[in-house]
Amino acid sequence: LMSKPLLTIEDVVEPAKRDRTHIESTLKLKEDKPADDYSGTTLQRLRKIYHSSIKPLEQSYRYNELRQHEITDGEITSKPMVLFLGPWSVGKSTMINYLLGLDDTPYQLYTGAEPTTSEFTVIMHGPKLKTIEGIVMAADSARSFSPLEKFGQNFLEKLIGIEVPHKLLERVTFVDTPGIIENRKQQERGYPFNDVCQWFIDRADLIFVVFDPTKLDVGLELEMLFRQLKGRESQIRIILNKADSLATQELMRVYGALFWSLAPLINVTEPPRVYVSSFWPLEYQPDTHQDLFLKEEISLLEDLNQVIENRLENKIAFIRQHAIRVRIHALLVDRYLQTYKDKMTFFSDGELVFKDIVEDPDKFYIFKSILAKTNVSKFDLPNREAYKDFFGINPITSFKLLSSQCSYIGGCFLEKIEKAITNELPDLLGNIGLGKKPSILSCDTTGCGETPKNRYRKP
């Protein structure tokens, strides 16, 4: 009997790799851009406006304790952040490897069919390949991740940074997240997973929610995630990955099933953009819609490039939106305090008087009076219930009225933030459109905050 010849290493055919020229051209990776001192000047001016016109009111009325969103200097000057969310093993890490061309290099993220990413992984630019522990990232305020310390040491052990010398990462930062596993209880993760996700969602410029044809079920954890995405619909992009693993008819059914699953979770008139393709380095499967998948991929890359190009506009708009929220919060606290002072008499029990106000603010027209006097949109008003918790921690008597928050030299806090919202920030935005360089204002007189320090770096 003749034995069958054994396969040798030479007989094993390497899978064909996909051409990457469309990635390099769409993301402009070959272009040598000159040093951009214009964006640095704009961000310095933005930082000055924040510290001189917004932060004083924010600190005086403890806005951070209402929204848990403290803006650091690192966040103002940070690159755009792209966040990857979705069930486990749908190809999030593989997609990052593909976009950056990290496959078969020492830099590639670990991938597999089982849940592999148990950490929040921040992929950023650096001069050489380097891994940074979460505790070091949180200590370095220049990196914009210092507020993550509040989630505890268990979380910081699940936070990791990877510096990679890649052209794209000079302009953007990627964040890979642990996959959603529906049968796992929140407490088993050992840290507040939803709160951490919310922190990254609030700061992301683009959010890719990735699915694959085998994981379209919506469980409690995914439902909670979409609740957290409420209000960020313009940043969300849905990705149906591994699309070339299906025949045409199956793909149509899966596409419909995905919309059916997500429809109750996204309450907007215009559905989010859905990209259907296969984001990995190997060639598309034969007899599939390869042209369609390539066009979808290029559209996604154009979307990503648009976010990078609009970095300054998005940053100014973000700070202005933050300023509007701070102003509304200050006006509400001021109104609560004024109502409290009006209702107090010599014989009144202050605690009971304020409890009556905070339990039913509508009886005292607190929210309606803000709408009537200050031209605030009712859609921007915070939840009334949030102020029960806020005043439970912060006694009403610890605040001052807005009318007393003025000084001869510094002016009034309210006037300064209103000037920033109506004049300074729109002017800064207009200068970008006209290509004008904003004037640099000295930080010596206005105070732009401390220079970011790394507590772990030796002098």
UniProtKB/TrEMBL annotation:
Pfam family of the protein (one): Dynamin_N
Cross-referenced CDD domains: EHD
GO biological process, alphabetically ordered: response to muscle activity involved in regulation of muscle adaptation; store-operated calcium entry
An annotated GO cellular component: sarcoplasmic reticulum membrane
InterPro entries per record: Dynamin_N, EHD_N, G_DYNAMIN_dom, P-loop_NTPase, TRAFAC_Dynamin-like_GTPase
Keyword GTP-binding attributed: no
Superkingdom as given in the UniProt entry: Eukaryota
Membrane association type: Peripheral membrane protein
PROSITE patterns named among the record's database cross-references: G_DYNAMIN_2 (PS51718)
Keywords recorded for this protein, A-Z: Glycoprotein, Membrane, Sarcoplasmic reticulum, Signal
Protein name: Sarcalumenin
Protein source organism: Crocodylus porosus (Saltwater crocodile)
